[in-house]
Specification:
141 residues; six-stranded mixed beta sheet; globular
Length: 141
């Protein structure tokens, strides 16, 4: 649990220094809203920021997140132990989703952001290009 909170804290710090223009609204039917961005943004810094976020997941043992590439789409998965933990870390999850989706969109990288609840064995997905959340679905196999 301590590692989970430490990685979320690191992600929160990364979120605080972002150029992101996304604002993911997380309610019963979450939506993302794209605001006007500054055309002068430096794409190398956007790529660097995205890479740092991905490295937070891939370089940490027992990380609460995962990054994969499937069928030409990048998938960032944020895993919470249960719904209570997800609700208590909602702000960080929204910021991580915003950074990942905003940077992916700006760099023209097809991407999806996923939230999974380990104990409940459910997940739902945010499609970065369409700004839509899927319904919750079972991850049991």
């Amino acid at each position: 649990m301590k590692k989970f909170m430490a990685v979320l804290a690191l992600a929160g710090m990364l979120c605080s220094c972002t150029y992101n223009a996304y604002q993911v609204k997380y309610d019963d039917q979450p939506k993302a809203e794209v605001k006007q961005t500054n055309p002068e943004e430096n794409f190398s810094s956007i790529k660097e920021q995205r890479d740092k976020l991905i490295q937070l997941c891939t370089n940490q043992p027992d990380s609460p997140c995962s990054f994969t590439q499937q069928n030409g789409v990048d998938h960032f998965i944020l895993i919470f132990p249960n719904e209570k933990e997800m609700q208590s870390s909602k702000e960080v999850a929204i910021n991580v989703a915003a950074i990942f989706c905003s940077s992916s969109t700006k760099l023209s990288i097809p991407a999806q952001f996923h939230v999974a609840l380990d104990y409940e064995r459910v997940a739902h997905d945010f499609n970065c290009s369409t700004d839509t959340w899927s319904d919750w679905y079972s991850t049991k196999k």
